[in-house]
Amino acid sequence: MNRRTVFALAAATAVVLTGCTSGPDRKDDDSTAPVPGTLRVLASSELSDMTAVLDRVKKDTGVTVRPTYMGTLDAVDLVARGRADGRYDALWLSSDDYLRLRPEAARKVVSETSVMTSPVAIGVRTATVKALGWKPDTVTWSQVEQAVTAGRLTYGMTDPARSNSGFATLISVASALSGAQSALTDADVTKATPQLKEFFKGQKLTSGSSGWLASAYRRRGDVDALLNYESVLKGIPGLTVIRPSDGVVTADYPFSSLAGTSADTREDVRKVTEGLRTTAVQKLITDTTRRRPVVASVPPAAGLDTTRRRELPFPGSKSVADGLISAYENELRRPSRTVYVLDTSGSMDGDRLDRLKKALTALTGDFRDREEVTLMPFGSAVKSVSTHVVEPADPKAGLDAIRKDTEALSADGNTAVYTSLEKAYDHLGSGEDTFTSIVLMTDGENTTGAKAAEFDGFYRGLSAARRNIPVFPILFGDSSRVELQHIADLTGGRLFDGREGSLDGAFEEIRGYQ
């Protein structure tokens, strides 16, 4: 397995730089030209719920905040690589903790002011809390781990390699189960690994964004809990939100000025920071987003428990943080099982097929140990089915085989989208012990084989377990947004856009959901 630093997501960076928008949680603007009175802000994706707050700040200060939303860890990588220089004026991330571990990123930040906070928490179905006999105020991470090990609790969380909520959750669990009294070390992670392996057997849902995770949870009835920020969980009906009594990791959402900006721009950053911390705006923040105010005179919104919790220690070095992520990706979590349903009809001939091959070849560098990858190219029908596993003992063999099959792809025939999807579901079975999904890439509309209505009937006739397998379609070429959005909505997937920007980036972004 290519154990590259998991945070160095070059393909995700390419998505931002090319302006490819892949879903509702990302808003990519053309941020290259500064505009007086406007701040170009690189912001964590969950801050897309702050529109009303930013409107109020603009009214109070006269400064417009123009955010570009992306995953916190991807944003740090962007800053570290110098790709934010001249494109953004400020950062507004859920946390700057990981940024501080990367000197090349930390030196590009010249001011940090916390705006609000939200701790990692566990949202558990109220009926499950009663069945476990838990008292929410006293539940510990060890109790959660014991319930998971006993098969009495399942949960979903975001991908720690892409989302800070997932990363903060991983740190919370590792710190608590290892008993670390200071910054996490490699020894702490090693000590906690046996319990962590048991803990992550209970993870049934993974996601690249908190929004999709919440939607997937609502759709499914076999997941008992979600691990995420308290503010996210408070917005989901039917959950009892628990902050484990032995400690949590808290997001503090610092508004940070970037080096290299002008004096006028830094003055605008100061105005916005002060505007966000006024009594009126702090109250608006906590009332509308369920995040906690940082101004002492403003009480938290109703329903937010004010009992203090220990702040669990963040890893003391980048190597420990990266090692923890690598262990999660390749050893601790359930393995992935994915069918790539790839349009290789006649319209893909030439540049489009070359781009597909390039994107898939690049993606092999991100496949995890134990991952099962099936390539299912189609035209008028499915042309072949080739399955490979990235075996920890010899990962190169599996990756080379995927690359060889990718290079052999050729374009001909019509476009049998729905028939090919049916074949993918038949190939996968239930997939209950893996994170199982289907990725559909097509450059055109369905022209042969099963029709949309027939596929709808096929899908609804599947067992409940197989209906839990989502399809993640990628818009490309002349494909129909309406057609592909329907497939995503029907199966509980999410639509990604590979047309205007990087196809590599669309494939890479899906990785957070596999």
Précis, in short:
It contains 21 helices and 18 strands. With 514 residues, it is α/β, with parallel strands linked by helices. A hairpin with a 7-residue loop joins strand 14 (372-378) and strand 15 (386-389).
Summed up, the helix count is 21
Distance between the termini: 17 Å
Inertia-based shape: globular
Report the helical percentage: 40-55%
Low-confidence stretches: 1-31
How many domains make up the 3D coordinates? 3
- Overall mean pLDDT stands at 91
CATH level 1 class label of the largest domain: Alpha Beta
Residues in β-strands, percent: 15-25%
Tell me what the CATH architecture of the largest domain is.
3-Layer(aba) Sandwich
* CATH fold node name of the largest domain: Rossmann fold
CATH superfamily of the largest domain: von Willebrand factor, type A domain
Count all strands and give the number: 18
Computed structural class: alpha/beta
Model description:
This protein is of the alpha/beta class and 514 residues long. The radius of gyration is 23 Å and the shape is globular. It has 21 helices and 18 strands. α1 packs across α21 (503-510). Helices cover 40% and strands 18% of the residues. The protein folds into three domains: 10-115 and 252-293, D-Maltodextrin-Binding Protein, domain 2, CATH 3.40.190; 118-250 and 309-329, D-Maltodextrin-Binding Protein, domain 2 (3-Layer(aba) Sandwich), CATH 3.40.190; 335-513, Rossmann fold.
